[in-house]
Amino acid sequence: MADMQHIPNVKMSAQGVNVLYGEKQAIRDVSIEVDLENVTALIGPSGCGKSTFLRTLNRMNDTVSGARVEGRITLDGDDIYGADMDVVQLRARVGMVFQKPNPFPKSIYENVAYGPRIHGLAHGKADLDEIVEKSLRRAGLWDEVKDRLHESGTALSGGQQQRLCIGRAIAVEPEVILMDEPCSALDPIATARIEELILDLRGNYAIVIVTHNMQQAARVSQHTAFFHLGRLVEQGPTTEIFTNPREERTKDYITGRYG
Amino acid sequence: MTGQAALTPHGATPGAAPAPRIAAPTDWRGEAMRRRIARRYAAERRFRLMGLAAVLLSAGFLAFLLVTMVGNGARGFTRTQIALPIDFQRSAILIDPALLTGGNAEQALAGANLPAVIDKAAETAFGENGARMISPAAQTAVRKAIIADPAILTGTATITVPASEGIDVAAKGQGSAANEAAVARLQQAGALSTGLNLRFLTASDGTDPTLVGIWGALKGSLLTMAVTLALSFPVGVFAALYLEEYAPRNRWTDLIEVSINNLAAVPSIIFGLLGLAIFLNLMHLPRSAPLVGGMTLALMTMPVIVIAGRNAIKAVPPSIRDAALGIGASPVQVVFHHVLPLALPGILTGTIIGMARALGETAPLLMIGMRAFVASPPHGVMDPASVLPVQIFLWSDEVGHGFIEKTSAAIIVLLAFLLTMNSIAIYLRNKFEKKW
Ligand SMILES: Nc1ncnc2c1ncn2[C@@H]1O[C@H](COP(=O)(O)OP(=O)(O)OP(=O)(O)O)[C@@H](O)[C@H]1O
Ligand SMILES: [Mg+2]
Predict the structure, then answer these.
(1) Helix axes B290-314, B251-263, angle to 10 degrees
(2) Residue A168 near ligand 1, beta carbon < 6 Å
């Protein structure tokens, strides 16, 4: 990862992004930059478009029929909606942890090994074993599953499944990690483990996290963006947003007086 | 982090007090509530009983079918035999015993006039009608006996040979008065016995019910089904995959969807006409061949597989596709690594239904000439052949009493084929289900 320093700090940048589901506009003129130094938190009331915006960053909205994305989004300066962008490779480079845990109905091992295998990241069985162990350790799941790697991933509890999905996402070593409420089903210990992981990944990976937990946003992020009704109302350094928000709506939301 | 001190729980909207409830609190222990619970239990009991009754009824029908079929058909697998004494010394078969030890004993015996010898022996033993009591299949039995022990040619031997249709039917209790009398006489002489009719499983169609067998039709069915499966399964699965995973949703795909649904409901005889027009008249493929039969049935089976396949593919949760796409699997990888394995059990269920229907189909095969009389089993998909349901249809049309039990026996073979085919498919389905 030594050559990471030569890459400009801005990893992804979105300019004037609109997302439409058919006639309905879910995201309106959003511009934001994601960099390696700062974890970006997206906050906002339910239905304001956080997931929708997150999904534009790895083009998962392409799979939704009727969804249309306008504006310009770049990864390392390349337009990800451009004609010469390979969307399959883009999604490997920009990994995603979904809002609802969605492990494959395969073994725990296979869940994590699948990504490295299809991208040819492992050289031999031992290498793959190592990737699986490392990824599960980072996701804070290893100790719980190391004796039953060949049982089904869907037989795990909800929180374990979510950590499995995190392990699966980081196993392909993406450059950007998008997390959509990764801790919504986790207990405080597992949550702490994930937050540790995020702090650990920061600097090498660009991280965007959606969360409804204000304390979590305050703990793990350095940059916060507040969404409301599809608009990016306010963004800035996390400390600024939480201590001294410029907008009334932001203040109401983070103090729980949102109506 | 000073901001954290200001955090309060969500949803505390000030000033909007809920309207007070005026209704009395629910009486969970009251009479009305108890009656409601009793009604609920009764409804559940009723529902269970109805389900049980339905299952018992269908099981009863199945048992009735099996009992009658096996009862009638079992006799098709047995035959009446007559112990026939033959005096080879006097019958003057001119044959060199040295020829009988080599590999071409059958040929050597074919030259000798065995049928005449047998008829003569039967007349000697059982009177002037004796020859009519013996089945033409007796030749084979006698030939085998001679090859097994050439020494009998120098003396008299008693060989067990199959009885003729008349005697066979009479012995099984349905013959004419004359034949009943003959059976009584034979029984008195102690010449009558019952044996296993192995010939039924190895021979093909014929004109004498004591000679016919099911093997030709069974092999025809096997070849036809193989062609049907080889064509309809891959085409059906790929069509379903394409329509579900790749095709854009527009008027054209809607039209295709409606057409396929209608195709599955088209009467089978129309597929037969289609096969006749295209495969025989246009492409000039051989008549009565399993290839053409299989192709015609594949036309019929494919829509069933497409419909079942689409439903199975639709049932794969979108979150699995998202998960795979999200770590950079290509659309083809998503389909072959995730969607298809998860949909396979459902696809196989559709395939079982389609193939079972194809196996029992008669009408479209009649249209493409598979009702021809075929006396030898097909060697390949291009040879003329019959199939089980058509064979059953043909035999049920015969007047001879001997064919009635052959018809039932053929039905048993058809059902056994069906059960075997379904068992294999169910085994495969469970195997794929367990994998996850
Ligand atoms: N596939 C879709 N088709 C149509 N509308 C959609 C679709 N997905 C989301 N929407 C709409 O877009 C808006 C934003 O949804 P989104 O899922 O991005 O909200 P969110 O901020 O992630 O909410 P939550 O915090 O509850 O997850 C909502 O009004 C939703 O109804
Ligand atoms: Mg969301």
Answers:
(1) 130
(2) no
Contact A214 B7 (CB under 8 A): yes
In this structure, the strands spanning A67-75 and A78-79 are: antiparallel
Q: What percent of chain A has pLDDT over 70?
A: 96
Q: How much is the pLDDT for B1?
A: 39
Confidence at residue A149, expressed as pLDDT on a 0 to 100 scale: 93
Alpha-carbon gap, residue A122 to B416, rounded angstroms: 50
The structural domains of chain B, ordered by start, are 78-196 (no CATH), 215-432 (1.10.3720.10)
**Residue B258 one-letter amino acid:** V
pLDDT in tens, B74-88: 888 888 888 888 888
Predicted TM-score of the model (pTM): 0.81
List the residue whose alpha carbon is closest to atom 22 of ligand 1.
A51
Task: Go through the domains of chain A in sequence order and give each one's CATH number.
Answer: 10-102+173-254 (3.40.50.300)
Which is the closest atom of ligand 1 to the Cα of A55?
18
C-alpha B369/C-alpha B287 separation (Å) is: 6
Ligand 1 centroid to Cα of residue A56, in Å, is: 12
| Ligand 1 atom 26, closest CA | A46
**How many other CB atoms sit within 10 Å of the CB of residue A49?**
23
**C-beta atoms of A119 and B338 within 8 A:** no
CA distance B361 to chain A (A): 39
**Ligand 1 binding pocket includes A64 (Cβ within 6 Å):** yes
Q: What is the mean pLDDT of residues A85-101?
A: 93
Indicate if the pLDDT at residue A144 is higher than 80.
yes
Q: Is the CB of A46 under 6 A from ligand 1?
A: yes
Contact B12 A172 (CB under 8 A): no
pLDDT of residue B22: 67
Choose the residue to mutate in A19, A23, A24, A51 for probing ligand 1, maximizing ligand atoms within 8 Å of C-beta.
Answer: A51
Does any ligand 1 atom lie closer than 6 A to the CB of residue A51? yes
> In this predicted structure, what is the pLDDT of residue B3?
42
Classify burial at B286, counting beta carbons within 10 Å of its beta carbon; exposed 0-12, middle 13-18, buried 19 or more.
middle
How far CA A169 is from CA of A85, A124, A178, A182, in Å, comes to 21, 20, 9, 12
Cβ of A103 within 8 Å of Cβ of B8? The answer is: no
Residue-wise pLDDT tens digits, B25-76: 888 888 999 999 999 999 999 999 999 999 999 999 989 988 888 888 888 8
What ipTM score was computed for the predicted complex, to two decimals?
A: 0.90
Kind of pairing between the strands at A206-210 and A40-43: parallel
Is A105 near chain B, with CB under 8 Å?
A: yes
Give, in degrees to the nearest 5, the angle at Cα B339 between B338 and B340: 100
